[in-house]
Amino acid sequence: MNSAQRSTVADRALTSQGTSSTGSSHAQTDGFSTMRAAIISLAGEIFTIELKSVREVFVVESITPVPGMPSGLVGVTNLRGTVIPLLDLRPMFALNADEPLQYAVVVKHGNWQVGILVDTVPEIRILSKNQFLPVPTGTGERTFPFMSKVVKLEDRLRGVLETAAVLSHFEGAG
Fold first, then answer.
1. If residue 129 lies in a helix (H) or strand (E), which one and from where to where?
2. Cα separation, 160 vs 46, whole angstroms
3. CB proximity list for 99: less than 8 A, separation 6 or greater
4. Using CB atoms within 10 A as the burial measure, which of 10, 31, 122, 158 is most buried?
């Protein structure tokens, strides 16, 4: 990775940690009518994660497989001396998992944190609460676990990952 890529990852990691003049993941324009979110890509599909759940973003240099890990947890990596379990959500969403993923978004819930593997470094956006809709039910062959709502982005409905549900599922599966 060249220095320009490292700088971009570092800049976006600082942004994803919630560093801003507002100091909150919700914009202060008119109460809680907007939400800051990280826009991530999994096998080309776009999802969002509420920014307050994101700790940081980093380049995954190596993955150490651990026998007996629950399905979806592909191994662990060392992040500045901390062992971070890595989660690949693509198989759970019936997405193509052939390509290796080079970035991870560390999300937290309580005392537990995990790196969700993603295609690209996330983009940070401010989303209006009126862009959110409940997850459609009975939508056919593909269902997306761990989502309680969808958001309209780029004229398409995109899933909002509920990090508490994701991490609670894997915390109990261990």
1. none
2. 9
3. 43, 119
4. 122
Detail the DSSP E strand segments found in the chain: 34-42, 45-50, 54-59, 73-79, 82-87, 103-109, 112-118, 123-128, 132-134, 147-153, 156-161
pLDDT tens by residue, 32-89: 588 898 999 988 888 889 899 899 999 999 999 999 888 789 999 999 999 999 999 8
Q: Would you give the DSSP letter of residue 120?
A: S
> What are the tokens at 170?
């894997």
CA distance 48 to 42: 11
Pair 126, 48: CB distance under 8 Å: no
Other C-beta atoms closer than 10 Å to the C-beta of 8 total 13
